[in-house]
Design a protein that fits this description.
This protein is α+β, with helices and mostly antiparallel strands and about 160 residues long. About 30% of the residues lie in helices and about 25% in strands. Strand 6 and strand 7 form a beta hairpin. The radius of gyration is 21 Å and the shape is elongated.
Amino acid sequence: MGIEIDVVVGYPINDEVERVLGLAEAVGEPVTVTFLWEGGEPAERAVMVPAATLALWEHWAPTAWPTSGAGDENGAGVEQPELAHPAEFGPFTLFRRRVGGRTAVARDGVVVAELLNPEEAHWLEEKARNVRQGFMDPKQKAAFEEFLARQASLEEQ
């Protein structure tokens, strides 16, 4: 992915989220962010994907990101993180999903981006690109078939 930014975060006040989101929205591309938490906690990498870009990827990707440890045959699932209140940072609210680990970034009640782990973002982008490159809409497909029908056969050439 194209852009990488390091953001030092205690609480993402001081417009850090706004700057990263503004960059992602301006270029229409995902932005890789490293959150360096205060207090010595390990750094956390995430990819901020604008909502429109994520919607496009999810439209073209044939399947969802494979989750490991989704449960065994007895129906026992993996341990889920504890439910917490959404975190508000100025005009943004972060909604951490308990399943899948994504975090939705909302501004004024509208989801404008999502934070994904880098592996999921890369996988989703690749799957979407591969499917999209092999797709022809019905008009394009009909025109291509008509073009092929007008071509001389190999024996005639």
